[in-house]
Amino acid sequence: MVLEPVAAQVYFSPECHAGYAELGFSPSPGSTSGGVQLPDGPAYFTSRGSVMGQVAGAVVAAAFGVFNPEAVVPSIDFGWSLVDAPTICAARTRGAVAQLERVLGPSPDGLARAAVLLATAVAPLRPEGKPLYAGLLGLGLPGEPLADAWRLADMLREYRGDAHIAAWTSADLDATEIGLLTEPYWGIPLRSYVRTRAWSDEQLDAAEKRLVERGLLEDGALTDEGRARRESIEVATDAQCVPILDALGDEGLEELIGLLSPWGKAIRDAGGYPAQGPHELASLSGRSSTL
Fold first, then answer.
1. Alpha-carbon dihedral of residues 86, 91, 92, 93, nearest 10 degrees?
2. Do residues 285 and 185 make contact, with C-beta atoms less than 8 angstroms apart?
3. Cα separation, 147 vs 151, whole angstroms
4. How far is Cα 4 from Cα 154, in angstroms, rounded to an integer?
5. What is the structure's pLDDT at 1?
6. What gap in Å lies between CA 200 and CA 32, rounded to an integer?
7. Does residue 212 contact residue 190 with C-beta atoms inside 8 Å?
8. How far is Cα 165 from Cα 159, in angstroms, rounded to an integer?
9. How many angstroms separate the CA atoms of 13 and 102, rounded?
C-alpha cells in the first residue's frame, strides 16, 4: 500500500515522540533494527484516540478493535491525566507534518495534485459506523498544503481500518480470533504479530481453542473454511472502499500511486516508517488494497 508509509509515519515520527514527551509521556522506548523509532504505548493510544475527542478508554479500545482493552484503558486514563484531547491532537499533527517536511521538504513534488486526488478520494465517504474516520472528518483540514495532504491520507487509512473492523465483527469474530486467523493468512508464524496487541497467552490459548472447535484453524494453520472466512473479510472490507476507487477512476488511482510511491520510499529510507509493515505482509496474501 503506497498510502501507508505517508499516513502512518505519524506513529514513528521522532518529532511526534518529542512532542508527546514534552506533554509528560515517555519518549520512544527504542528503535527497530532499521532505526525506526517505536511509539510509547500510552502516547500512541492517547494521540490516535484524540481525533475522536476526550473519550473514555473503553471507547478507544472499541474503535481500535484489535488491542487488548486491559492495555488500552489504563493507557488512556493515564493520558487524560496529562493532557486534553485538543492539545495532544495538535501535537500529533505538528509532529507528523514536521517529519514529512524534514524528509520530503515543505513542498514535495506533486503536492498540490496529490492533495486534489486525496480530497477526491475522501469526498464520497460517509462517517456512519466509522468512528476514527468520523473523528478526523470532524477535525477538518489543518489549512496548510502538506498538512492537508497528510490529514486526507490519515482519513483514508482510518476509513479502511474502520471498514475492516466492521467486516470481521460482522463475521462473528473477536479481536483475538481475527488476530490469530490473520497471521497464517499473511504467511507468518502463529502468535508472532498478534502479541503486539497485548493479549496474554491465556487469552490467545482460549481464542485458538475456539477457532479449532469452529473448524477454522488446525495445527496452527488455516483450514479451507478458515481461509475462506478470512478471505471473505478482505472482500467485505474492499467492498466498503469501492467509493474511493470509483471517485478516483483508473487514471486518478494510477496518478495518485505514482505521486505517493516516491514519498513513501523516501520516508522509509529516512527511517520514518518500517521497511516492511503489516500491510506489506497482507499484500503477500494477494488481498491488500492497491492504494
1. 90
2. yes
3. 6
4. 9
5. 83
6. 23
7. no
8. 10
9. 10
Q: What is the C-alpha to C-alpha distance for residues 161 and 65, in angstroms, rounded to an integer?
A: 9
Three-class SS state of 271: coil
Specify the pLDDT at position 286. Answer: 46
- Mean per-residue pLDDT for 161-189? 97
Query: Cell numbers at residue 208, please?
Result: 485458538
> In the structure, what pLDDT confidence band is assigned to residue 114 with cuts at 50, 70 and 90?
very high
- Cα–Cα distance, 287 to 275 (Å, whole number): 20
CA distance 226 to 172: 13
Q: What is the pTM of this model?
A: 0.94
Angle, CA 101 vertex, CA 11 and CA 92 arms, to 5°: 35
Nearest by Cα to 254 from 117, 115, 153: 117
Cβ 95 vs Cβ 13: under 8 Å? yes
Give the C-alpha separation, 65 to 169, whole Å: 9
- What pLDDT does 276 receive? 75
d(CA 27, CA 265): 26
As a whole number of angstroms, the distance between CA 233 and CA 237 comes to 6
121-128's contacts with Cβ under 8 Å and 24+ in sequence apart are 121/152, 121/156, 121/244, 121/247, 121/248, 121/252, 121/256, 121/291, 122/152, 122/155, 122/156, 122/159, 122/244, 123/247, 124/243, 124/244, 124/246, 124/247, 125/155, 125/159, 125/243, 125/244
What is the rounded distance in angstroms from the CA atom of residue 166 to the CA atom of residue 4? 20
